[in-house]
Amino acid sequence: PPSAAEPFWLKISEPASATAALANAPSTFSRRAMAPSSPHRARSGLLAAALAAAAAAAALGLVTGGLPGLGFAALKASPAVKTPAAAVKAPPAVKAPLAVKTPAAAEKASPAVKKPPAVKKPPAVKAPPAAKKPASTYALFMKEMSKTLEKGLSVGERAKIVAGKWAATGDKGKKKYEDEAASLKKAYDDAQPPAPPKRPLSGFMIFGGDKRAGIMKANPDFAVGDIGKKLGEMWKVVSEADKTAYSKKAAEAKKVYEKALAAFTKEHGEPLKK
User: Fold this and answer.
1) What is the pLDDT of residues 23-49, one digit of tens each?
2) Whole-angstrom Cα distance, residue 234 to residue 228?
3) Residue 54: its pLDDT value, please?
4) With 0-12 CB in 10 A as exposed, 13-18 as middle and 19+ as buried, what is 63?
5) I need a surface site. Which of 70, 171, 244, 271 has the fewest CB within 10 A?
6) Three-class DSSP labels, the chain
7) What are phi and psi of 241, to 5 degrees?
8) CB atoms within 10 A of CB 124
9) Do residues 243 and 203 touch, judged by C-beta distance below 8 A?
């Protein structure tokens, strides 16, 4: 135990803690330091207050340094309780699922369906080109006379000279050219395919055939268009009885045509379209 000359706190060099020093103080202090005859009684009040303050500070964790001159080690505040890292960290955010990639084959557009090639129609059967028409009697005479004319003459002068010679040629001289022209025409006709029967005329066309000659005689200066216009005006004023008569003629002509066409088709086949 410490002596009276050496107080107990001077013997405490490195106490384990301030709490241990305070626990040992009462027994020693009550025997010696607090004795009525002790020379240290004068400081007993201050010591008690300091010890109480130190104990309170230690309990509250406020004393961070030592008591100077008293030999107490610094009271260290207990470390703050750390919150577990796992509790502090927020849970990870839920990520949206990745978009499903469309296969490259599906992304490509399907090729356009090609249309089948159009079927070409066979070319229509055309009639063979017509043979050159045979020359007339006068054309044969002109061709022969042109060889005897002078060169350098105009077309009009040549035509005038040939017309004079033709007029001076007698029937015997013309007979030569007429026979040649008839021979050429026969050869031409034989080379031509058989001609189908002509289509029948309508009632108005039969009426026009009956009245055309009278219109041309009464109006010699009429052109083809004028004659057709005049026939149309005359047909408008024709009585119903006359129109019926022309319609009957047209119906009879149609029957004749159909009969002739059937015979032609049976012998030569369908007539070629021009």
Assistant:
1) 554 444 444 444 544 555 545 566 667
2) 10
3) 67
4) buried
5) 171
6) CCCCCCCHHHHCCCCCCHHHHHHHHHHHHHHHHCCCCCCCHHHHHHHHHHHHHHHHHHHHCCCCCCCCCCCCCCCCCCCCCCCCHHHHCCCCCCCCCCCCCCCHHHHCCCCCCCCCCCCCCCCCCCCCCCCCCCCCHHHHHHHHHHCCCCCCCCHHHHHHHHHHHHHHCCHHHHHHHHHHHHHHHHHHHHHCCCCCCCCCCCHHHHHHHHHHHHHHHHCCCCCHHHHHHHHHHHHHCCCHHHHHHHHHHHHHHHHHHHHHHHHHHHHHCCCCCC
7) -65, -40
8) 7
9) yes
Rounded to 5 degrees, what are φ and ψ at 196? -70, 160
Please count the other Cβ atoms lying within 10 Å of the Cβ belonging to residue 190. Answer: 7
> So what's the pLDDT on residue 124?
57
Q: Is residue 55's pLDDT more than 60?
A: yes
pTM (two decimals): 0.36
The single-letter code of the amino acid at 119 is: V
Q: How far is it, in rounded angstroms, from Cα 54 to Cα 64?
A: 11
| 15 touches 76 (CB < 8 A) | no
Q: For residue 261, how far is the Cα from the chain centroid?
A: 55
CA 69 to CA 54: how far, in whole Å? 14
